[in-house]
Every structure is written in C-alpha cells, then in structure tokens.
Amino acid sequence: MDRRGKVVDMTRQESFKRRVRARMAKTGEKYGAARRVLLEQSAADSSWVSEPEVGDGAVIEATGRGWAEWRRIIDRWSGRDEGHAAIVGFLRSAHGLDGWWAQTVTVGYERITGRRLPYQQADGTFTAGRSKTVRTDSVLLREALVEDKFRSDLFGGLPTELRSRPDAKVLRVAIGPGVAQVAIEPRSDGRAKVTIAHEKLPFPEAVEQWKVFWSDWLEAIDGA
Fold first, then answer.
1. pTM listed for this prediction
2. Tell me, what's the pLDDT at 33?
3. Coil, strand, or helix at residue 64?
4. Is residue 141 within a helix (H) or strand (E), and if so which, with residue range?
C-alpha cells in the first residue's frame, strides 16, 4: 500500500473508532458490544472499515476474484460469524484456495469488515514490529537480554522478564503490556540484524506507542 493508501486506511480507522465511541455514549454499551453492532451494520452495506494489506490485483491474479467479490461470497455464507478458522476452512473446502491464500483472503475480509484491525491477530490482540541492522556484537546483545541484571540496564530499569529458554533461537521478553519476540541475526561484517515482534498488545493505540519505543531502543543499541 502506498502512502496515500495508508492515510486513507488510518482515516477510516479513526472514523470507525469515533462511531464506536459515539454509540457507547448514546447507548451506554461497552466498547466490544458497540463495535459488534457497527460491524453487523457494516456487513449489510458495501463500506470498508479498512484496506486489506494485499492489493486487489494480486488477489485477482492468484484466486480469480477481487476483494468485492470475496466479501460478497463470505457475507452470504451462513457460518461467517464462527470465527477466523471457520472462514479459512470454508474458503479451502468450498472454493479450493490453498492454505496461504485462504488465510490471506480471510484476513483481508476481516480488515474490510472491521473484524480485524491493522496489526490485530486472530486472538484479538495486536502486534508491533520493528527491525534494524545495528553495530552491536550479536553474542553480547544476546547475553545482555538473557541475564536479568544486564537486561535491566539494557531497558533503563524498565521491568522485564525472560519468557523463553536462554538458548532459544528467538528470545521472548515480557515487557509493558505484552511479550516481545527478539530475533538476532549475526552479519558477516560484525553487525547484527535485530527483529522485534511485540505481541499481545491489548489496544490498537498501543501499537504506534511501542513501535516508537522499539525504534528508539534500536537506535540506542546501535553502536553501543
């Protein structure tokens, strides 16, 4: 998606959240209940809550149908409210999509109808990702993440907890309202590519906050 598409997507997201909050104020419903009602209303018309990550052309080329047609197909299926896995199974069994494209079309449908927001996972939580190649020794960085004392220094005293084995390929570190998966890939020039996926974030607003945090953190360890 180009920059203009991202701006349109964000505008749609903010508009939808404002509609949810307006309904909450009017009816006294909790966020989840108000959101479900608006999603049901959205399913009855052709408006899109947000853009799928995969473009229409790519979907047509791979599946023979565009997003508008896939939305109509799933909307008309009686089991669409049974959840992500049910829709994937329907697309595979009834329409012959392979596993990857069944997942892709399902996620796209969930984005279009608001069942899945940007960065949202199947369990309803959100994930913030960042990656950077840094001028840091990969062995020393891994040791700092594994050892409690060094990890505390590495995060400026912010409470953290190692949730994986010290020798795991991808380290899991509990931090803030979620768990960060940290992958460290040594490079031949002595640098290291660090990839972070901060999972289990409870709200979409937390994604941008933690993306900024991880960008700053990667900058701080670059050359440290």
1. 0.61
2. 80
3. coil
4. helix 138-146
Give the list of residues 6+ apart from residue 201 with CB closer than 8 angstroms, or none.
125, 126, 127, 128, 177, 178, 207, 210
Q: Which residue type sits at 21?
A: R
Amino acid (1-letter code) at residue 122: A
Distance from C-alpha of 115 to C-alpha of 107, rounded to nearest angstrom? 9
Cβ atoms 106, 90 nearer than 8 A: no
Q: Would you call 77 exposed, middle or buried from its count of C-beta atoms within 10 A (0-12, 13-18, 19+)?
A: middle
List for the chain the helix, strand, coil content (%; round to 5): 55, 15, 30
Determine how many CB atoms are found less than 10 A away from the CB of residue 75.
14
Nearest to 111 by CA among 53, 65, 46: 53
Radius of gyration for the chain, computed over Cα atoms and rounded to the nearest angstrom: 21
Report whether pLDDT(3) > 50. no
Nearest residue to 74 (alpha-carbon basis) of 134, 12, 116: 116
Taking alpha carbons only, the member of 125, 136, 129, 80 closest to residue 106 is 80
The structure tokens listed for 80 are: 């669409």
Structure token pair of residue 204: 């979409």
Q: Where on the phi/psi map is residue 83: left (φ > 0), alpha (ψ -120 to 50), or beta?
A: left
Token pair recorded at residue 103: 């997942």
Alpha carbon 97 to chain centroid distance?
23
Q: Which of residues 223 and 128 earns the better pLDDT score? A: 128
Helix H or strand E encompassing 35: helix 31-43
